[in-house]
Write a structure and sequence with these properties.
276 residues, alpha/beta, Rossmann fold, eight-stranded mixed beta sheet, three-stranded antiparallel beta sheet, 26% strand, globular, binds S-adenosylmethionine, binds zinc ion
Length: 276
């Protein structure tokens, strides 16, 4: 039986789409490392993840926040959104899509998607990248056949035209890079929060009203909108107040020294844009 690292090395060999973010050279597997033509080397961690952003651990997300987010997502916090993403992939009719989640956090979304797509008979190749090494360390725990890398979405370690879909959920975008790595008929699946998103939490912390106007304007300047779907669900958070107060980066700096009372339920409200 192959170990997890060995399985992930085999997947990388099979895919053959890695490119050195430093020199753009082709990357190949060299024992337990990845090496580009110019000799830049990237080692596998024990979990079979790889860090392509050497010397930078990304935004300093606390383990506590990442674990809280993982727990709530496993309880279904964003399942409505992820179901819509799975439908968008299924509707494309591509039997074996290659999918990148650019800004995958701690990987729970991709794990959920893996199951949903399998249920639909779709054998997808899933790859998650995030600049947060803490997030990728947690993501790498999964036994599923998903590849996770620490990488900057502004300088992706992949060859041109490698993906059928780039998922970009609640995360900044680099449309130039997304277009570069997408196949000709490839699509970006972009999830943007709406005004009501987690509004109960915003109220607890006295935050200003949210508007996605700038994000959407930037998106429309760079891509064509194929479709937009509004997704609204209510998540029953009874008994999980602590995780709720911990999970959202937008509340950073607001939690310290403040013993806020968590809402009993929260609204999840977002738009899924299919872009080309
Ligand atoms: C709010 S979290 C969303 C995570 C996940 N998509 C989800 O919905 O749970 C935003 C993520 O974007 C990542 N991120 C921010 N800038 C990035 C960059 N330049 N490259 C890669 N990831 C980045 C952060 O590390 C963080 O994990
Ligand atoms: Zn290189």
């Amino acid at each position: 039986m192959l170990s997890k690292v060995e399985r992930r090395i085999e997947s990388i060999k099979e895919l053959g789409i890695l490119e050195c973010p430093r020199c753009k050279g082709k990357i190949s597997v060299d024992g337990r490392s990845l090496k580009c033509q110019s000799g830049h080397t990237y080692d596998f961690s024990k979990k079979g993840t790889v860090n392509f952003v050497l010397g930078y651990g990304g935004e300093n997300y606390s383990r506590e926040m990442l674990e809280a987010r993982r727990k709530l997502m496993r309880m279904g916090l964003f399942s409505g959104i992820l179901d819509s993403i799975a439908d968008a992939v299924a509707n494309s009719g591509i039997a074996e899509p290659v999918i990148l989640d650019a800004g995958c956090g701690e990987g729970t979304g991709l794990e959920y998607l893996d199951e949903k797509l399998k249920e639909k008979g779709i054998e997808a190749r899933l790859i998650g990248i995030d600049i947060s090494s803490g997030g990728i360390t947690i993501a790498g725990r999964t036994e599923k056949d998903i590849l996770f890398f620490v990488a900057d979405l502004g300088s992706l370690p992949f060859e041109d035209h490698s993906f059928d879909f780039v998922i970009n959920m609640f995360t900044p975008a680099s449309y130039r890079e997304f277009r570069r790595v997408l196949r000709k008929s490839g699509k970006v699946l972009k999830v943007v929060p709406e005004r009501e998103h987690l509004i109960e939490l915003r109220e607890v912390f006295g935050l200003r009203e949210y508007s996605n106007a700038e994000i959407v304007a930037h998106m429309e300047e760079n891509m064509s909108v194929v479709s937009r779907e509004r997704i609204s669900t209510t998540f029953d958070a009874e008994g999980h107040g602590e995780e709720l107060l911990l999970m959202t980066p937008m509340l950073w700096g607001k939690t310290e020294g403040k013993s806020a009372e968590a809402p009993k339920s929260v609204t999840v409200s977002a738009s899924l844009f299919v872009l080309e």
